Amino acid sequence: MTHAVIAGAGEIPATRRPGADVTTRELLIAASRAAVADAGLTHRDIDGLGVASFLLAPDQAVDLSWQMGLRTTWLAEDILSLALLRHAVRAIEAGDASAIVLVGGDKMTGRGFTAMMEQRYSSVWRDQLAPLPIGGPNSLFALLTQAHMDRYGLTRESYGRLAVSQRAWAARNPRALYRAPLSIYEYLAAPLVADPLSIYDCPPLAAGAMAIVVADRKLVKRRRGACRIAVRSIAASYNADLHDGDGLTTGISAVAPRLWEQSGVAPTEVDHFEVYDDYPVMVLAQLQDLGLFTDPAAFVAAQPGDRPWDRINTSGGLLSGGQCGAGGTMKGVVEAVRQLRGSRGPGQLDNPRFSVVTNYGLVPYRYGAGAVGAVLEGDR
Q: What superkingdom heads the lineage (predicted)?
């Protein structure tokens, strides 16, 4: 355990159709200010800034720092927003900063997403995938879902149980984008986007931003009411199989042993999991890589109330909460902070102690190349 703690969190809830006057920069600044206030700090206390955003360009972290009126000694940018937490923890430990804002988000709309994937995402997408009529990553992950179904004997209903469960959590989250009840029958009857994926398997693009403050424990110790969420362990893996694998085993498989060893926490001790849910199949893949089960079919067949089946993505995840670009995983961190400090409101778990958050993404060709995981502990 380090002496760096998560001291505050802020969120600008996702919206599906943002106004023309809404900008990615404004979303990031608003979420950052909310997190700083939540930590009981002021902008004068902040000496570090980390940014995860696809659409802030051409501006960078240094520009956002100036626009926020921050004088900083540490800056970072990373599209995997959970990776920023890893960088920030190391910076606090090294004495490079004492209070760092980490913010992720985008004004992500259909048109903006298409332009990003075709022009700015990567040279592989621009040169090899964009010219093909594949419709973006949905088609790629439809193929992964088909392979997963074949290997483990799953059906569309298997993945639907995750989507329905997360919608039930979203119904108790006033910040979630979609809160109306979703039944398995509605899920199965939904239009297909890329067989076997339906509209409920693909996170809706949205505009929004999430932020946290990572600070030296000594700095926030004197702040009355300030939360102090400990980072028990955090680890990352990139290009774990160099895209020579089948995609059903993620980089989390390389991360998990370090997470459990460094934290001293076993998977069975974790109270809830905030797993990156760009598609339900990847939720199951990451949970399996974390060591929760060996048979996905048996896991999804478990009855509601069986732990940890009913403790996954308690915010509603991206599938019901909206995909705000590079801020996707920050949503899971913010939810973990709220649960661990007991401020979730409706949907609050009973005195949770440990949370696990994962980040999966960076699709250079066929599936995600980056994976980050963290074990967090509450200190109430």
A: Bacteria
Q: How far is CA 68 from the centre of its chain?
A: 24
Q: Determine the Cα–Cα distance for residues 227 and 6; give it in Å rounded to an integer.
A: 7
On the question of a common fold for 4-110+206-221 and 123-203+232-377, the answer reads: yes
The CATH H-level (homologous superfamily) assignment of domain 123-203+232-377 is: Thiolase/Chalcone synthase (3.40.47.10)
Nearest to 127 by CA among 368, 370, 364, 369: 364
d(CA 74, CA 365) in angstroms, rounded, equals 32
Contact 44, 289 (CB under 8 A): no
Q: Could you tell me the residue ranges of all domains in the chain?
A: 4-110+206-221, 123-203+232-377
Could you read off the pLDDT of 172-225 as tens digits, one per residue?
Answer: 999 999 999 999 999 999 999 999 999 999 999 999 999 999 999 988 876 665
Whole-angstrom distance, CA of residue 54 vs CA of residue 104: 9
> Which residues 6+ apart lie within 8 Å of 87 measured at CB?
50, 76, 78
Q: Which of 4-18, 246-260, 352-366 is least confident?
A: 352-366
Element (H, E) at 263: helix 252-263
